[in-house]
Design goal:
This protein is of the alpha+beta class. It is 39% helix and 20% strand. The chain has 15 helices and 16 strands. The protein has helices at 13-32, 46-52, 58-63, 82-91, 136-152, 171-183, 191-199, 213-218, 228-243, 288-291, 306-315, 335-350, 364-373, 384-389, 407-419; strands spanning 36-37, 43-45, 66-68, 74-77, 101-110, 122-131, 159-164, 249-250, 262-269, 280-284, 299-305, 328-332, 355-357, 378-382, 391-396, 402-406. The strands form three sheets. An eight-stranded mixed β-sheet has the order 1-5-6-11-10-9-7-8, with helices on both faces. It has a five-stranded mixed β-sheet with strand order 13-12-14-15-16, with helices on both faces. A three-stranded antiparallel β-sheet has the order 2-4-3. Strand 15 (391-396) and strand 16 form a beta hairpin. Helix 5 runs parallel beside helix 9. It is elongated. The chain starts with 12 loop residues before the first helix and ends with a helix. 36% of the residues are buried. Bound molecules: histidyl-adenosine monophosphate (HAM). Residues 80-82, 111, 113, 119-120, 123, 125, 127, 129, 257-258, 278-283, 285, 301-305, 307-308 line the site of histidyl-adenosine monophosphate (HAM).
């Protein structure tokens, strides 16, 4: 027997209902903030991610699904959506429009990660980006969008973690201090950190090994090394967040796992924070467009992990309840009734009432059992007697009340209830 590949999942109809509601909420919030939808390809040139996300990141070093197609081109399933959105912005000349250009997408992304609770190899993100503007009010807007979306789902005890990691002017000074500090603590850090010290020192602060935590605690802090303009940007951002009543925690260790960030970075954590629980994160990436061959373009964005949001909703007892089903199950007793109900089902559907007709040659009991099993709201029963009288027995499956209604009246009646 085949099974879905490790780290992927099938979403069956009940689960799909929760997904649709979550996606509708995500879309709703992005559009409330004036973001327009963009859809990009599932795969891109591999080089886009090598250059965009960074060759010394976990995503590119260990997690990317890269392959050569039959024409010999190197491609990759998108491991994230920011680089593709910037590529599209440059490719379609969106820099000619009034800035910022605000784009959102709901995408499936792929990372060869070690599967566990909250960590998948194919997962879904709400991704929002604002391109072409360096005003920190946009950073605040995006952090607020992520926060309000999660808050509106009913999630409690979340925390907004915020940091500034500087830019090309002040970051080198910080990295120098960080490297000097770590060189004094080589004996206390893990082998991965010794490698990071050479390849990607910023990532040292993100190490999850217990033995490295005390070293991280004592490390230099990015916020102490910000140049004047970065410090001012960070200060204004915090003022805008305060204006909207968004409490945040400055977290000087927050560096994020992708190389393109400059200045602002943030994450939203659930109460039981851990490596695979972060609900969403993002930041500013003022150098990315240029790195991808475009003109210098300040930009900022975030992505939220939809599987993790659903898991956290469930943990907090908030798994969105069963949707009200407006489904009518039409239960025919005999062939002539089946033909009549088949016509009725067609009329119901054309009026927007979901309808399904019982199949085969089943007893009333078997038909009602099926109606309940598929979560129908009503059973519409017709046997020879109802057929002769031009009536249907309508059974409300929630209350078990039953009444006879003329076939002619049913479509109006059910449509009214379903569309109410
Ligand atoms: P990221 O932090 O790599 O950022 O991913 C964003 C979110 O995706 C995470 O906070 C988490 O909720 C979810 N996520 C990440 N990996 C997994 C996984 N293996 N399984 C399930 N969920 C996962 C980015 O992707 C950036 N592109 C965000 C961004 C947009 N920055 C600027 N603009």
């Amino acid at each position: 027997m085949f099974r879905a590949p490790r780290g992927t999942q099938d979403i069956l109809p009940d689960e799909a209902n929760r997904w649709r509601r979550l996606e509708a909420a995500a879309r709703g919030w992005a559009e409330l903030y004036g973001y327009g939808e963009i859809r990009t390809p599932t795969f891109e040139e591999l080089g886009l991610f090598l250059r965009g996300v960074g060759e010394a990141t976990d995503i590119v070093e260990k997690e990317i699904y890269a392959f050569q197609d039959k024409g010999g081109d190197w491609l990759a399933l998108r491991p994230e959506e920011t680089a593709p959105v910037v590529r599209a912005y440059l490719q379609h000349g969106l820099f000619n429009r009034p800035q910022p250009v605000k784009l959102y997408s709901i995408v499936n992304v792929f990372r060869y990660d070690r599967p566990q609770a909250g960590r998948f190899r194919e997962f879904r993100q709400l991704n929002c980006e604002a391109l072409g503007e360096d005003d920190p009010i946009v950073d605040a807007e995006l952090a607020a969008l992520l926060w309000r979306f999660l808050e509106d789902l009913g999630l409690r005890d979340l925390s907004l973690q915020l940091n500034s990691i500087g830019d090309s002017v002040c970051r080198p000074g910080f990295v120098e201090a960080l490297v000097a500090y770590y060189r004094e603590h080589l004996d206390k850090i893990c082998p991965d950190d010794r490698r990071r010290l050479e390849t990607n020192p910023m990532r040292l602060l993100d190490c999850k090994q217990p033995r490295c935590q005390p070293v991280i605690e004592g490390a230099p802090r990015t916020v102490d090394y910000l140049c004047g303009p970065c410090a001012e940007h960070f200060g204004r951002l915090q003022a805008y967040l305060a204006d909207e009543g968004l409490a945040h925690q400055i977290n000087p260790r927050l560096v994020r796992g992708l190389d393109y960030y400059t200045r602002t970075v943030w994450e939203v954590w659930p109460p039981e924070a851990g490596a695979q629980s972060t609900l969403g994160g993002g930041g500013r990436y003022d150098g990315l467009a240029e790195q991808l061959g475009g003109r210098p373009t300040p930009a900022v964005g975030f992505a939220a992990g939809l599987e993790r949001i659903l898991l956290t909703l469930e943990k907090q007892g908030l798994a969105p309840g069963e949707a009200e089903s407006g489904l009518a199950f039409l239960a025919p007793l005999g062939q002539p009734a089946k033909r009549e109900l088949n016509r009725l089902a067609d009329r119901l559907r054309r009026r927007g009432v979901p309808a399904t007709v019982g199949t085969g040659d089943r007893s009333l009991k078997a038909l009602l059992r099926q109606a309940n099993a598929i979560g129908a709201r009503w059973a519409l029963v017709m046997g020879d007697q109802e057929l002769a009288e031009g009536k249907v027995a309508v059974r409300d499956l929630r209350t078990s009340e039953q009444r006879g209604l003329p076939v002619e009246a049913i479509v109006d009646e059910l449509a009214r209830e379903v569309l109410a």
